[in-house]
Known about the structure:
heterodimer; B: mainly alpha; 75% helix; 1% strand
Amino acid sequence: MMQLLQSDWQRIWKRKKTFVSLLIFVAIVLLDCLFLGVQSFGAFDNVSSVPLTAQNFSLFLLKEVSFFLVLIIGPILMIDSFNGEYHGGQLRLVLIRPVSILRLFAAKWINLAVIMLLFVAVTFVIGEGVGHLLKPSVDSVVYLNPDRAYSPAGAFMYNLESYGLFMLILLAQLSVTAALCTLLPSPIICYLGWIGAAVGGLYVSDALGFLLMGMSTIFQWMAGRYVHAFLLPVFGCIFLGFAVTMLWWNRRNWVK
Amino acid sequence: MRALFHSEWERLWKRKIAWLFLIAIPLIIALTAKYYIGHNASVPLGSPEHTTAENFPVMAMIEQLIVVFNVVALVLLTFSFTEEYRSGQLRLVMLRAYGSSQIFWAKWLAFASMMALFFVVYLFAAVVAGYVFFESSPQQTLFYYDQPVSNGHMIGYTLGYYGMAYASIVGTAAVFIAIGVISRSSTAAIGLGMGFLLCSLGYPLIYEMFNRVTGGGWPAMLKYLSLTEIQFSGIAVMLSGSAAARGWHAGLWIMLILAGYIAVFTAAARLVFTKSDRFI
Lengths: 256, 280
């Protein structure tokens, strides 16, 4: 299993796209820091906003960059790994060896989860650092719910928890994308399929809105105002998508 | 050249996605109509946002132009320029005695004709849906107009709006072609294309903030350097009849920006497409 993980990890980084995405992403994060740096208010949505401080800076930074992760960088890396290698025939060289296909899928899933964690962690570190550089520190900070005030340590935990929830949403996206990549033939169609699934989720049920509007869901959930189920659909997507795709891979026609 | 165009045209229609979109147009129109029926309940009759049978085609185009048409253009162009080239299918075309410049223009023409067809079908579907779902009104209120206009004027306005929307799609397509030609894989092309769209959407916000921080005074037309902003409000400003909007010379500016995008990116894409080595 360890060797499968390593081999897949090397293949991920061998694609220039991964490293270039990371560079572009860091550039976008820094630009967004500048953008937030000259603003004095952070907006949760069209109506509610609070003054930007060192304590809540990283949360608003995540809101600004979340669309790049959910709509561009995330899908590209996932589709390249789940569908691009299959479509291009590169996986044949791996499957020549007597490896378990179930484990191969699990290795890919774990590696991509680690990569996503890396992107989210970079945002968190830069956000906390730049926030304290550019914005004044305050003793008490409120978020979407004005009745709950947090101390600096409490605010740090609040941000960390929000980042953790966003990571869970990315994992749900990972499982859904894996299923889509198995169902659909080519990378381009997979990409379109993911956009369709994220937008279509809004129409199917409000509880699936987190796929596209992740940050707005997290803002409301953390303030205790989210009216739909949140954790159940997220974990449902993660485990159902993972299990279904894994079994599907096992029964798939690998002759291509 | 005719045969080459025919072959490109057939290869575009070979894709299921093209047929899927053509079939989806009535569905998209129906969903848009459903949205505007709900929206009408909260908007008074005299507002430009109030949808009637006559202005529904324009309202339906405003709603879907940025997301649906741009993404469909991106997908079709990625198939046509990146996927066919990088997967080697195009070798079978290059075997024949055509220059790569001819192949480039045939691809461009096939895409432009296909988009034109989509726009015409969309317009017809929207006209029919407008009369089915909405009530007719003797006069229309439009964005950036001082007075309501007659229904005869509305026909010209609708055609003008669709024409400009088509021109803006040709503009975004020029960028997507340039991206598709330089990308080594189709996921990269799609990702860069979506990145371009997101940055275009974000640009007006950054421009407004920049304007505020530096104390204002920058020309308002700089906002329309973003193609999606042209699609969002620029076309309405351009076709507006109010004296205030006319003072900006919006039509001229937006035409120049569109022409600039098309000329620069199409020329760059053609240069790369014809000069890069073909031994893939």
